[in-house]
């Protein structure tokens, strides 16, 4: 293993030096008024070297991965064939790589179908070559590995791969003894999963249960893979619905500031306010005005908001936690959000930085541990 790492490292350093030299020459030629044939040649050579250096980097990464992790056979074979193709055709820039399980057992366990695509690439460059001859070249340049027992070329250039029985035996034995093991993480990241989040004054329903189950399932999967998972379940205690509720509260219990209003059924109270909001234009305007005054944190409106939240939270049980308003009171005036990353509908867009800082560039302590996270938001 150490010999292979040393070999790859030496080749990596050599090709990095070549890339630096070629880049300097390309830059020098690029300042010429008209691009020369030599410049185009150097650019193509530079592209080939960058591809080869990436192959070597993948080799180092594969060797560096802990043996405790299960082997992804397709990925391992892709690495082997990428090395062979690069060695057999060093002049090709980004040659295609196609490795997949074989559909018919008599033709082997896996199959590499890159030869035909490489033939098309070479034909476009004016080099007509038989795909079967290309497949033979690839097989001749296969590096020593622990997976492949033998290969057979069939049809116009399909490379059928038969795995070593010793490799399969070790893999199956490990699976029986140790169970399914996740791949090794090079860097343990935090994943924030935000789910359920019931709203104040509204009954919980099957949608909350569904998103809770989905969210918890995702959490367990990420924990199994080795990520540090943060579960978030906010209470929806901020927004337009409070304008309706406060306006209705003012009408039904005008002395609410001095006498606690006997709201026994908050759900019915909410439905009454919603009906008035939909049917009474004057009430709607008052409701919007109440939202503005609540967000301005006027004491009487904060008092009304607190009363409504207290009634709702009595039925929420363990969900008595910070709601959305918690961040409103902090971020609206005292904190600036640097950047927030969301994966909407479980579509990964990127990995980024999340931090809350004040004017003194101090990190808000409860957000400090969420720097460099993935955030999942499941919405309906």
TrEMBL record:
A cellular-component GO term for this protein: cytoplasm
Annotated coiled-coil segments of the chain: 12-59
Highest taxon of the lineage: Eukaryota
Keyword Cell inner membrane in record: no
EC number: 6.1.1.19
TM annotation in the entry: none
One GO process term, biological-process aspect: arginyl-tRNA aminoacylation
UniProt entry keywords in alphabetical sequence: Aminoacyl-tRNA synthetase, ATP-binding, Coiled coil, Ligase, Nucleotide-binding, Protein biosynthesis
Domain Arginyl tRNA synthetase N-terminal: 75-163
PROSITE patterns found in the cross-reference section: AA_TRNA_LIGASE_I
UniProt GO molecular function: arginine-tRNA ligase activity; ATP binding
Catalysed reactions, as listed in the record: tRNA(Arg) + L-arginine + ATP = L-arginyl-tRNA(Arg) + AMP + diphosphate
Enzyme category, top tier: ligase
Entries under InterPro entries matching the protein: aa-tRNA-synth_I_CS, Arg-tRNA-ligase, Arg-tRNA-synth_N, Arg-tRNA-synth_N_sf, ArgRS_core, Rossmann-like_a/b/a_fold
Protein family according to the UniProt entry: Belongs to the class-I aminoacyl-tRNA synthetase family.
Designated name of the protein: Arginine--tRNA ligase, cytoplasmic
Species in which this protein is naturally found: Gouania willdenowi
Gene: rars1
